[in-house]
Design brief:
The complex is a heterotetramer, with two copies of chain A (195 residues) and two copies of chain B (331 residues). With 195 residues, chain A is mainly alpha-helical. Chain A has helices spanning 5-21, 23-33, 38-55, 61-75, 80-94, 101-116, 126-137, 143-152, 176-190. Helix content of chain A is 66%, strand content 0%. In chain A, helix 5 (80-94) packs antiparallel against helix 6. The N and C termini of chain A lie close together (6 Å). By secondary structure, chain B is an alpha/beta fold. Chain B folds into two domains: 10-184, Dihydroxyacetone kinase, domain 1 (Rossmann fold, 3-Layer(aba) Sandwich); 185-323, Dihydroxyacetone kinase, domain 2 (Hypothetical Protein Tm841, Chain: A,domain 3, 2-Layer Sandwich). Chain B has eight helices and twelve strands. Chain B has helices at 11-22, 85-95, 109-124, 154-167, 172-182, 233-248, 268-284, 316-323, and strands at residues 27-29, 35-38, 49-56, 73-79, 101-106, 129-134, 186-194, 212-215, 226-229, 256-262, 291-295, 304-312. In chain B, the strands form two sheets. Chain B has a six-stranded mixed β-sheet with strand order 1-2-4-3-5-6, sandwiched between helices. A six-stranded mixed β-sheet of chain B has the order 9-8-7-12-10-11, sandwiched between helices. The interface between C and D is medium-sized, with 36 and 34 residues. The complex binds adenosine-5'-diphosphate (2 copies) and magnesium ion (4 copies). One adenosine-5'-diphosphate sits between chains D (30, 34-35, 37-38, 41, 78-80, 83, 112, 116-118, 124-126, 160-162, 175-178) and C (81-82, 109-110). The site of one magnesium ion (MG) has 3 residues of chain A, from loops. Chains A, D: Residues 6-190 form the DhaL domain.
């Protein structure tokens, strides 16, 4: 059970699949509390990631993470681009020292928080990344944890991102970035042999 | 959705291509990007560069304000989506003529983060940059713990002021001071009659009934602060002026610049009628704007509606900057 | 109908008032009329005056082209309705600086007759006038027995050429010759996605289905020559270029000015994409426009759509006239 | 049975009434083959006419015709303004010599034709003014003549005015200016003692 370029690629492809399948749903989530483009943004990003991994097959984990990061940074734009990009860039850095997914995700989560300034409870992807990274570190991540984290954003008042312009009226809606992040974690636990 | 486009996924590259090829005297495109630069290289020599940009869909912003006396370059993101750091970085590199580059960013999480990352990249090249994050939209409550207010049409006035100062030789630090001084004096508030349709989404960002309007809507269909039955222009103007008054304390002893900005699908006919009502209200307070502009400057694709920007001219120089001649497509 | 207006019967006076008060540096209103004149009196001294006008609803035309180097005055009729002779006559009187006044009229029965009556009135005062009746819209078949072709966006290019010549001292006869020479070389054809709503009528001038477009529509919702399912921008451009080609015989050995004109509710995004496709088509014929403009110049209130104007530059001077600097709101 | 300032005023008021009642209908007629404003144009015009006759009561027939003409010329605009205006201006001139309605209308009709260049059969108001002026001269104008003239425009191909842009597709629609002119003639025959 270890992280390899192959199962990383498998994980990312599975994430890409989910994003593409749920593209419209992600944009729909982004409509009442955002600008309706999260599905399109993420779909553009995962397409670039897949093309990059196809065209230049990385030999090393660090290169793989870096290619993923660069594809996301240069193709997604918006808020999610720099955030997802930073997450994978931090994993790239960390992967020089360790392949432990708990540590990698902790670094990624720290990067997201630093880049966007959001804390847990601000109704952003951080509400998924932080608790689930912790669970990963403890070796106990399950789908119900993912669902709980994602669904937990529904009751929150947004403090960061576009949804924050709504203030209290953001309550009652899932955060789109939390949802797409949920797919990343689901794809992870569904990837055989990676955990 | 009925639009003059080819492929919803391809609107930005085709739009930028059409724009640049239609106006080569003003613009050139940085190859392999959707960033556009001022063609008139000579006009930038020895001066601080000014780069702005953001999601597309706000045309003529931002590329329409690239030219002598205003912006050095503009980076065009996907529709309503911040451009990416690599493209912003390319524009910064080309805008730098040894004196550094000033970045004008609208206050959206995405823009702030992507411009930040580009800044980091530019630092590696020893290109000095400073940034102003414009947040003129008073429809949103400000707070230390949130993203804060949005950047909207007032950004164009920021471009104008900084562009004029840079053209007259202001240093990066001068521009920074100027931008910081100007910022709190620019306030904008908008009204929507119909939401914008993002090509890739295919339907309006929100639905308004046939007789409904919404106050305080953002330029990406972000929700506003109240919905009402449609009213006469006069009453819409009253609502917007009241909101502006709350933050700027409109006073006949002060000087103001005013911008009435169409959202893309609202004809000038309506913008001029609104201006008539607006000027009546201001005149009622003994205020005659020292500078005024009416038209489409910072649009929201095909949104129907308009925004009102009031800029308190604390210094006479700021008015000179607004009146300073420029060579751009859209100012 | 959802519009930013007060009273559908009062849009023109309120609009003109808002326009003139927003831009006093360019315009002043003739009291008790909806005619507007250039504020810069000095710039008109000793020169032939140029007066245009027509129904309102085409903003920025025509008042937006009043200013140094372009029109001396513009008369704003009711919405889509020719102005009346008394008001045209007032504008002629004020535009006359001893050298006579040249009238630019779009070829509609109403405009032609009202300007004619105004001319008769001016003759009584011994004010010399000449007229050009612009009929650039090739969507309509020409014939000796009918009204003939309509005047549309190409009229703005006529204003520009004549304005530049007048500013450089052309006599009334010179202008007459110039206008006659230029006229057959300006051709326009439009496309509509959605009709305009005249405020007093309250509903669109015609109905197009959600997936329908119409070629050849006039700027007052006059019907076009064919209806089709919406197509990619590329194919719309092809249809319009084909029509223009039929009359102008586009050829790489000739020089052209091109105007892509938005109808009021079509965002620049779409106009630039269309321009991209248009330039590809022209480049395919080895034609690179010598002059190009893209934007809202001659609108049809809130119609969605655009028109393409091609102006064959038979003389180099005509290009100079297009590039001649002006001080107007909208050129 | 003679034309007086009083019954002229009555006639014009009755015309105004019909125009106001049928304002929407006139604009509707102007929609498929024009620009949909004929009702508004005419309503604006007759309002100005009534105001003028109210504010400055004319003593002489010539003055009355002139006031009517000037109000129409300076308030209607479009195509119908100069045409109706010219018609009444010609009647004003002619009224110096005669009060015979046949002669007055013949002069008016000639004025319309000169101003607009239209002939009978061009699907304009001339298709009402010319035949009905003739009938007036013969002293035999009846509502059925009016209806026939107005309805006759339906089958014509427009050669002048906005409808001409439609070519053959103008067939099948009544001409709005013919319809409003019909009201003028109907108002005339309904005015007691004028004929
Ligand atoms: N400052 C931030 N910190 C963390 N996450 C953020 C922040 N701002 C936005 N997000 C995340 O980004 C998502 C929106 O992404 P997206 O729609 O692609 O970008 P944009 O808001 O620019 O259109 C939000 O749902 C939220 O999860
Ligand atoms: N050249 C002309 N000669 C006679 N009548 C004309 C002419 N042009 C237009 N008309 C009449 O004017 C009517 C249209 O008037 P109106 O709608 O008020 O003006 P516009 O066409 O300028 O909008 C037509 O129905 C027709 O009867
Ligand atoms: Mg979004
Ligand atoms: Mg976005
Ligand atoms: Mg009309
Ligand atoms: Mg009409």
């Amino acid at each position: 059970m270890a992280l390899t370029v192959d199962n990383l690629t498998e994980w990312i492809n599975s994430f890409a699949q989910k994003v593409n399948d749920q593209k419209d749903y992600l944009s729909e989530l982004d409509t009442p509390i955002g600008d309706g483009d999260h599905g399109n943004n993420m779909a553009r990003g995962v397409k670039a990631v897949q093309e990059s991994l196809e065209n230049k097959k990385p030999a090393e984990l660090t290169d793989a993470f870096k290619q993923i990061a660069m594809a996301l940074i240069s193709k997604v734009g918006g808020a999610s681009g720099p955030l997802y990009g930073t997450a994978f860039l931090e994993m790239a850095k960390k992967s020089k020292d360790t392949t432990d997914l708990g540590e990698l995700f902790a670094a990624a989560n720290a990067g997201i928080k630093k880049r966007g300034g959001a804390q847990v409870g601000d109704k952003t992807m951080v509400d998924v990344w932080e608790p689930l990274s912790d669970q990963l570190a403890q070796g106990s991540l399950a789908q119900e944890d993912i669902d709980k984290a994602v669904n937990g954003t529904r009751g929150l008042v947004a403090k960061k991102g576009r949804a924050s312009y709504l203030g209290d009226r953001s309550v009652g809606h899932l955060d789109p970035g939390a949802m797409s992040s949920g797919y990343l974690f689901t794809a992870l636990i569904e990837t055989e042999g990676i955990l | 959705m009925k639009k003059i486009i080819n492929d919803a996924g391809n609107v930005v590259p085709e739009m930028v291509d059409g724009l640049v090829r239609s106006y080569p005297q003003y613009l050139r495109q940085i190859p392999d990007t959707e960033a556009v630069m001022r063609s008139d290289e000579d006009s930038m020599a020895g001066k601080v560069g000014i780069v702005s940009g953001g999601g597309s869909g706000h045309e003529p912003a931002h590329a329409g304000f690239v030219g002598k006396g205003m912006l050095s370059g503009a980076v065009c993101g996907q529709v309503f989506t911040s451009p990416t750091p690599d493209q912003i970085y390319e524009a910064i590199k080309q805008a730098d003529h040894g004196k550094g580059v000033f970045l004008v960013v609208k206050n959206y999480s995405g823009d702030v983060m992507n411009f930040d990352m580009a800044k980091d990249l530019a630092e590696v090249d020893d290109i000095q940059t400073k940034t102003i994050v414009v947040d003129d939209d008073i429809a949103v409550e400000d707070s230390l713990f949130t993203q804060g207010k949005r950047g909207v049409a007032g950004t164009v006035l920021m471009h104008k002021v900084l562009g004029a100062a840079a053209d007259q030789g202001a240093s990066l630090d001068d521009l920074d001071k100027l931008a910081q001084a100007v910022l709190p004096n620019i306030k904008t508030i908008g009204i929507a009659l119909h939401a914008a349709t993002v090509p890739e989404v295919g339907k309006p960002g929100f639905e308004l009934k046939d007789d409904e309007i919404e106050y305080g809507v953002g330029i990406h269909s972000e929700p506003g602060y109240k919905r009402e039955k449609i009213k006469p222009s006069k009453e819409m103007a009253e609502e917007l002026v009241t909101q502006i008054d709350k933050t700027l304390n409109l006073d006949s002893s002060k000087k103001y610049a005013v911008m009435v900005n169409g959202m893309g699908a609202t004809p000038l006919m309506e913008q001029y009628i609104f201006s008539h009502d607006l000027l009546n209200l201001l005149n009622g307070k003994d205020i005659e704007p020292a500078f005024m502009k009416v038209g489409n400057y910072m649009t929201s694709i095909d949104m129907a509606g308009l925004s009102l920007t009031v800029f308190e001219l604390k210094e006479d120089k700021w008015l000179d900057y607004l009146n300073y001649p420029v060579e751009t497509i859209a100012w």
